[in-house]
Design a protein that fits this description.
This protein is an alpha/beta fold. It has one domain: Metallo-dependent phosphatases (Purple Acid Phosphatase, chain A, domain 2). It is 32% helix and 23% strand. The chain has 7 helices and 12 strands. The protein binds fe (ii) ion (2 copies). One fe (ii) ion binds next to loops. The site of one fe (ii) ion has 7 residues, from loops.
């Protein structure tokens, strides 16, 4: 009798193990890190990224790098460090264009992308398809137009290019780099069920509205800034105050203190391309008592 129970238990354990393994094979784990600001941001990514990739069994790592080169763009130097950590795609935004070196680098490395809806002829590409061990994952970068440059329509641009991307993969993660909450939400609902996730970037403040929309699109209005929080969105405080006081340009410098890493983890069903789990990441937590 005991032997019989041992056999039954072993078989049920074995089948459960196989079921978990099969489910795991059909799931793509994506880590998205919010706007990395300067050397402090790069340092904290180097510190935490390996353990996050291990904890969540990450297949694809995406980072927004529009501010990684001292607040302005992403050059080959920073990109090399990020790719060395296992980053698959570096997305951009309005600050991608701040340094001419960043613009030149966009032409050299297709893993560094910029918003797709900049006018035709701008340097670089607006999406990249990662060939991961679990299949192809497309990463697209868009930029909003509310309170930002009047570039092409992000809604129509995404719709147009999705017809092409969908011939290769159902898994599509979008970095929607925009100022206005409404524009990010509207884009997410516009693409709900057509893409795996719409992750907001640019405001440098993480929102607590991460969720999965009815069609299966994972969403967060802004996944936050990876960089120094004793600052005004990453830059030294005095210059930022003076800019508002005097309404004139000030010399911006990257701040250094109270550094945090922000992002989201997405679990995506590789058969359907839908997000099945979304988790907001903010480490370390803010001190809320002194
Ligand atoms: Fe940014
Ligand atoms: Fe930005």
């Amino acid at each position: 009798m005991v032997n019989y129970l041992v056999v039954v238990f072993s078989y049920s354990f074995y089948f459960r193990y196989i079921a978990i393994k099969i489910k795991d094979m059909m799931t793509v784990n994506v880590l998205f890190i919010g706007d990395i600001v300067g050397q402090p941001g790069l340092d904290i990514v180097q510190m935490y990224l390996p353990s996050l990739q291990k904890k969540y069994h990450i297949d694809v790592t995406i980072v927004n790098g529009e501010n990684v080169s001292d607040g302005k763009g992403c050059t080959e130097q920073e990109a090399k460090i990020l790719f060395g950590l296992g980053v698959n795609v570096i997305t951009g935004g309005n600050h991608t264009w701040d340094k001419h070196q960043s613009q030149e680098y966009l032409r050299k490395d297709s893993r560094v992308i910029r918003p797709l809806n900049y006018p035709k002829g701008s340097h670089g590409n607006g999406y990249n398809i990662v060939d991961s061990a679990k299949g192809k994952v497309a990463v697209m970068n868009l930029q909003g137009r509310a309170f930002m440059a009047t570039i092409d329509c992000p809604f129509r641009t995404a719709e147009w290019v999705l017809t092409k991307i969908k011939q290769e993969t159902k898994i599509v993660v979008i970095d929607m780099h925009a100022e206005a909450t409404a524009e990010k939400l509207a884009l997410a609902y516009f693409l709900d069920g057509k893409v795996s996730a719409v992750i907001g970037t640019h405001t440098h403040v993480q929102t607590s509205d991460e969720r999965i929309l009815p069609g299966g699109t994972g969403y967060i209005t802004d996944c936050g800034m990876t960089g120094p929080y004793e600052s005004v969105i990453g830059m030294k405080i005095d210059a930022a105050i003076n800019r508002f006081l005097y309404q004139t340009p000030q010399k911006y410098q990257t701040a250094t203190d109270n550094v945090h890493l922000t992002g989201v983890y997405l679990k995506i069903d590789s058969e359907t391309g839908k997000t099945t789990e979304i988790e907001r990441i903010f480490i370390p937590e803010f001190d809320k008592k002194i």
